[in-house]
Amino acid sequence: MSEELPEKPLLDHVMDFLEMLRRILIYIVSFLILLLFLPTPWLLPKTYYPFLFYCMNLTNHYMLNFNENIFSRNFATMFGVNGSRVVLISHGWFDSLTAAILLAVLLAVTVLSPVIAWEVYRFVEPGLYSHEKRIVKRYMVFALALFVSGVIYGYTVVMPIVFVVAVWLATLGGASLFFSIQDFYQNILIGSLATGVFFMFPLGILALNKAGIISYETLHNNWRYVIFAIFAVLAMITPDPTLISDIVLGLPFIVLYFFTMWLVKRSEKGKKKV
């Protein structure tokens, strides 16, 4: 607990936690409402066009126009789907609205992640010593950078390639390229956020190192096995049966793994100096 403050009753901690969740929920819902009704400025006053739906059209073009996307263009050519035209359809009256909300959730979580992290820090701060506060702040900044980088990488690189593979598989089966707009944005949301969480694995390794469970020597001696295991897991969880998504996700993992090794080595050197 903190050096200055006495220990609080368990009920007070629960109430503080619920209050933190309430504030975070208010931030997210307010941001979603703003996105839903905010007009596209450069289209005013001629027409009212919600900015969120403008972003949807940009997303549709970015993800599905394979010839213009620098990340998916070569894969589309390789699979022979560079001339394919995907049509997003709505199965219900409000499917497009649901899809817009899914995109808004992705934007809200990404844009508001520093605010959410600050609220979490405010909740745990009273129970930390002074030196622990500095460490937690440093780790939270690191976590935010990794998460946001992962979300951006997932949206800009991983998902366009995943959709190329999905279109290729559909054409192999002779299916017409009509896909649900709700499923389309659900995949974007899950894929982008999952990549963001995936990028945060160095924090888990550092935590295990701090706990004395994993050392730099262990990471260095077993890096081949770890990378093989990660690619094996990716092969099981990625949506396509090819190695494309595995490679796209696996390459940044390799970079992050060796970066984590460097961080662990630096941390152990710091301990020896102390």
Automatic annotation (TrEMBL):
It is found in: Cell membrane; Membrane. GO terms for cellular component: TAT protein transport complex. Its main location: membrane. It is a multi-pass membrane protein. Pfam families: TatC. Keywords: Cell membrane, Membrane, Protein transport, Translocation, Transmembrane, Transmembrane helix, Transport. GO terms for biological process: intracellular protein transmembrane transport; protein transport by the Tat complex. InterPro entries: TatC. GO terms for molecular function: proton motive force dependent protein transmembrane transporter activity. The chain crosses the membrane at residues 24-44, 97-118, 139-168, 188-209, 221-237, 243-264. Part of the twin-arginine translocation (Tat) system that transports large folded proteins containing a characteristic twin-arginine motif in their signal peptide across membranes. Belongs to the TatC family. Forms a complex with TatA. This is Sec-independent protein translocase protein TatC. The gene is tatC.
